Amino acid sequence: MSGIKNNLQHNATAQANTAFLKELQAKLPQYFTAEKTETIKLKDDQTETQVIQTSEFNIEKFLADLAQNNIHESRDGYRLSFVGKDYARLQTGLASETVIVPDIEHNQKPENQNSQNVFITGDNLEALRHLQNAYTGDNAIKMIYIDPPYNTGKEFVYNDKFDFTDEKLKNQLGYSDEEIARLKSIQGKSSHSAWLTFMYPRLKIAQKLLREDGVIFVSIDDNEQANLKLLMDDVFGENNYLSTISRLTGTPTGNGNATFVNELDYILVYSKNSIYFQANGLPLTKEQTQIYNQEDKNGKYLIRSLRRTGGEDRREDRPSMYYGVESPDGNLIFPIGPTGYESRWVVGKSTYEQMKENHLIEWKQVSGQWQIYQKFYLENRVQQPSNLWKDNVGNKRATRETRKLFDEEKLFDFPKPVDLIKQILTIASHHNSIILDFFAGSSTTADAVMQLNAEDGGNRKYIMVQWDEQTSPDSAARQAGYQTIDQISRERIKRAAAKIRSEKTDLPEQLDLGFKHYRLATPQIKTLEQIENFDPNQQDLFAHDMLEPFSATILQVDGLATGIDTLLQTWLMNDGYPFNTPIEILNFAGYQAFYLKEAQSLYLLAPDFKADCLKVLLNQMGQNQLLVNNIILYPYSFSFEELHQLKTNLKTNLEHTPKIIERF
């Protein structure tokens, strides 16, 4: 539960294996030593606990347990290696150095006030670092779809910030001068190593965000398909690979060569854990439904012979499926093959009795002989998804969809069709699933989620992330007034929602067609220096307004967010609470505080916490009108005396003293 200062300190000492060790410690705590701390006495009887030795992994104990269980390490390791992999691993373990700025004006509009959909403007790696704190357990992601930038040989537009000095690379990665030179040589380039370095930390954190029964779909073309497969094997595990879907684009993609025209791309599909993931079937096509050519009071159906046909159809293949069944005239009928051999039924005796009881058996006379059939009703019939997608998922459809929404303006290159994402959602999501797309692009995923919810009454929720990449100065998008890609993305959601409202009259009551908007922003260097150098024992530092640097105006983002709005949202996410967590605003003699009822946590961020404010707080807590286990406060907003009085009075006047967390 750290603030920006703690994150900066963490990042300064993080190693390439920091994230991996943290994950190991969560799952295998028995192999880690205890963390050692010491208590330092400060002024005025205050104390501070510092970590003097972090937990360490006991490799000897781990290897001993492996040997005892006859588990052998691989002697001939097979793994994916590329320039920058250690740096990419380091990126995975870094904490966020940005703050979350709510778009107050947008979020307070009636259609957005109660929305549980989220759109984040900012670097998606930073967004993922924030999300991994809160979207776990019941709030974990059921399905991820991403359409990352294809490595087409051009310089990366989406270039990660690289601000590591040579000394830092040597200290945190153990790199030599030669290795540092190789790493720097790929920055901003279109090499395979650069692309893999870009993708690795994003996929690693995405894997953590998924539920145990979650799944990820990643679109890609020929340029990186083979490398992406190896990378995802490395991140998700080969055993969790489900399929590579080949998608007919309907038009040449421009990525072919002199010999072949390329008219397809791919979608790689991996589960978080193949043991738990269960795909949904797809609706039957119109052609498939036509074979259900019989009908009774229960609906349309087709029939298939109860006798096994084709291979393994003899009695000796499945002896338990050879038995007599009673025909309508009372005779026992046995499964007999066309040449007179003893055959078998497709089900055992007990299953047959159940089918008979459920009226799923039909008898017909053929050439004077009774024949028995099983009945398959059309209702709720689905088909297993194929890995070749060629219908209603082409690029021409996607271009028409976006042009129609934007009054025939072509504002976005290479959008994905809505039907493609709806098909993925149908296969991989449930009615209440959370869907994540951290390369939002034109927000096709959000459009698809809203459309599918409107059709089947679902309550799926989406999280979109899009970098505020500048549109080209001479593009149609810029001429239409869109300065950045995320502006187009958000406008697409609004127009798609309006289209759904206008075209459907029987919309589900709970249908969510709004979204909350947040921006990620990096505090100014001056602010970060003040945070890092803050000493709670130097009272002169309390004179600084340390909330103002976090307001939307100072952070140079749109909106009316104050520093309190920004810090509260950032802290809530950091403390493990997703965007839709309900927060109560409490008033203590004019002082505004924020209360998280489910955790009994009170956030004190504003300045001027005077004696009368403290008195009201103590009275409410003392009379059990307000249950508080944790008080999370912003020390910069408190004078030394205010902080001292708060701590002293809580300790002396309450039977149960809440834990005070000072976040710098």
Automatic annotation (TrEMBL):
It comes from Acinetobacter corruptisaponis. Keywords: Methyltransferase, S-adenosyl-L-methionine, Transferase. InterPro entries: DNA_methylase_N4/N6 (IPR002941), DNA_methylase_N6_adenine_CS (IPR002052), N4/N6-MTase_EcoPI_Mod-like (IPR002295), SAM-dependent_MTases_sf (IPR029063), T3RM_EcoP15I_C (IPR041405). This is site-specific DNA-methyltransferase (adenine-specific). Belongs to the N(4)/N(6)-methyltransferase family. The keyword Methyltransferase applies. It catalyses: a 2'-deoxyadenosine in DNA + S-adenosyl-L-methionine = an N(6)-methyl-2'-deoxyadenosine in DNA + S-adenosyl-L-homocysteine + H(+). It comes from the Bacteria. The keyword Metal-binding does not apply. One of its GO terms (biological process) is methylation. Its EC number is 2.1.1.72. Residues 563-652 form the Type III R-M EcoP15I C-terminal domain. Residues 141-469 form the DNA methylase N-4/N-6 domain. GO terms for molecular function: methyltransferase activity.
